[in-house]
C-alpha cells in the first residue's frame, strides 16, 4: 500500500488465540484473552487491488463507472454507480455533484486504500476477505480457511496514517461502515472482532481509542466490545504498563466508560455472592 516502511513499539502481551465466536453473542468471545507471544514489528503492507475485488461482477453490470481516488498516495479504484449508491454516503455524493467536474472522480484523501478495498468488496460480494463461515455443527461463526498464498492479505491489523501505527482492521472497517451508512457491514465487522489472534495490548488500546473517536455516542456496540475485552484481560493489561501510560495520557471517554463498566462488574459479583454494594462516595 505504501512505499516506505514504519515500525512502532509494542508490548509483549497480545490478544487472544480464540478463533470462534458464539452466534448469539455480540461481544468478544469468552475465550478471548491476552497471550505472551510477541507480535513481531512489520512493514506496512500492500493493499488488495480493487480489480481482484470486483473483476467477477464488473462485466455483468451496465451502470456508469465511477473512479475514486483514495488515500494520500491517490490510489485509483473503479466501481459501478448503482453499486456505490447502496451507500447513502456515496448516493448523496453522486446526487449532489461531489464528483470532480473535470476528472469525474470522487476523492477520499483520508481513507486507507486497504480499508476501502474491503468496503468495495463488501458492496459487490456481501462480505470481505477473510469471509465469515457459519459452522452449523457448533452453532458458531468462523473465518474461512486461508491458504498460504493469501495470508499476507488476511492480516488482522492494518497500518493507519492517522495514528502512525497499526489498528485492528475490522475496527477500522466498522468505522468506515459507520461513515458510509452500511449497517450490514457494521454487523459483519463486529462479529469478526473476536476471531483474531496475536494482537498487542498497545494495538488493542489504540484501536479502542480510534473506535471512540470515529463512532457516535449513540453507537455503543463497538465500544462495548473493547470494554468487555479489557475487563476480561485486566490482569495482563495491568502488568503490561500500556494501560498505565494510556490512562496517564487520558482525555478520552474510553476511561470513564471503563470505570463505569468495572464498577458494574464488581456490583454484579457482589450481588451474586450476597455482599452488600458499597454506598460510599470517593
UniProtKB/TrEMBL annotation:
Bias-annotated ranges (Basic residues): 35-46
SUPFAM superfamilies: POZ domain
Highest taxon above the source species: Eukaryota
Span list, region Disordered: 1-57
Pfam families in alphabetical order: BTB
PROSITE patterns named in the record: BTB
CDD domains per the UniProt record, alphabetical: BTB_POZ_ZBTB_KLHL-like
Bias (Low complexity) ranges: 1-32, 47-57
Name of the molecule in the record: BTB domain-containing protein
PANTHER family, sorted: BTB DOMAIN-CONTAINING PROTEIN, BTB DOMAIN-CONTAINING PROTEIN-RELATED
Protein's organism: Hapsidospora chrysogenum (strain ATCC 11550 / CBS 779.69 / DSM 880 / IAM 14645 / JCM 23072 / IMI 49137)
Record domain BTB: where: 64-127
